[in-house]
Amino acid sequence: MSHLWRAGLVVLAVGVASMAQAAQAADKLVGNAAAGQSEVMMVCAACHGADGNSTNPQYPKLAGQHADYIEHQLESFQKGRRTNSIMSGMAAMLTQQQIADVAAYFSQQKTAPGPVDTDQVALGKSIYENGVPAVGLPGCQSCHGPKGLGNAAKLVPHIAGQHAQYVVQVLTGWHNGQAWGDGPHAKLALSVGQKLTVAQIHAIAAYVQGLNAVR
Ligand code: HEC
Ligand code: HEC
């Protein structure tokens, strides 16, 4: 009797273990925005703002960013594909579930529009729409969309309204050859930065900051 009972327990335990494995194998955790909000208030808000609209332009706005893209970037910091003295440490503290939660929260916030730098806008707009044909760079809109909303399914980020200072920081890094890993996305981004001159980077960043669907 007790022997059978024990055998039953073993079967049950094996069953639970394989269910747990199956759950781990299922790639997607469901983010809980409310749990994400309390995590954000405790840690991330100091730099990224309570609603993801950072006021200090060296910190990227995360409001309205696609959840999958936020998860992708946090995993890149964790795995060392993308490095930053602040964010590499921040990301290292997060569990997979916390990543899904903060991503759900930020993605549900609304991006605040940024100020427009009128001196730079004309050149920036032309690069945004038409690229730089002489060096074979397509317009930014061909991937990021005419309004800068990106493409969630393809992990192309929402960039409309992003701080110009941060956009300059990112594009200059790529321009100087600092890749975000060696995946196809990272290589694509690197080649965009390398095809732009420093002056073009400043113009396009000014345009991106003022680009917002709500305008
Ligand atoms: C002390 C300031 C600081 C704190 C706190 C902070 N971050 Fe960041 N975060 C940064 C900086 C700086 C960058 C830009 C890194 C770079 O240039 O590569 C960044 C970038 C990011 C990015 C990439 C955004 C993009 O558009 O590619 C994500 C996602 C992110 N942070 C999420 C978080 C989350 C989630 C938290 C809270 C757990 C957090 N950050 C806390 C400073 C901070
Ligand atoms: C061929 C498609 C493509 C084109 C053209 C393109 N991008 Fe991107 N961009 C991407 C992808 C994909 C990423 C994400 C890279 C990654 O995850 O490593 C990205 C990321 C970015 C980011 C980082 C956003 C963040 O906060 O993480 C900025 C800024 C950006 N692009 C600006 C531009 C600008 C400005 C142009 C035009 C000069 C441009 N891109 C042209 C595909 C493109």
What would the keywords be for this entry?
215 residues; mainly alpha; Cytochrome Bc1 Complex, Chain D, domain 2; 2 domains; binds heme C
Question: What is the residue-averaged pLDDT?
Answer: 88
Rounded to an integer, what's the Rg over CA atoms?
21 Å
* Structural class assignment: mainly alpha
Each distinct ligand: heme C
Shape-level CATH architecture of the largest domain: Orthogonal Bundle
In the CATH scheme, the class of the largest domain would be Mainly Alpha
CATH homologous superfamily title of the largest domain: Cytochrome c-like domain
User: How many domains, in number, for the residues?
Assistant: 2
Run of helices and strands: HHHHHHHHHH
Strand content: under 5%
Give the terminus-to-terminus CA distance.
75 Å
The level of helicity is 55-70%
Q: Would you identify the regions where 5 or more consecutive residues have pLDDT less than 50?
A: 7-25
Fold-level CATH name of the largest domain: Cytochrome Bc1 Complex, Chain D, domain 2
Largest sheet: none
**Envelope shape:** globular
Tally the beta strands.
Answer: 0
SS element count, helices: 10
What does this structure look like?
The protein has 10 helices and no strands. With 215 residues, it is mostly helical. It folds into 2 domains: 33-107, Cytochrome c-like domain (Cytochrome Bc1 Complex, Chain D, domain 2, Orthogonal Bundle), CATH 1.10.760.10; 118-210, Cytochrome Bc1 Complex, Chain D, domain 2 (Orthogonal Bundle). Helix 2 (33-48) packs across helix 5. Bound molecules: heme C (HEC) (2 copies). One heme C (HEC) is lined by residues 60, 127, 138, 140, 142-144, 155-157, 159, 167, 170, 180, 185-186, 188-189, 192, 196, 204, 208.
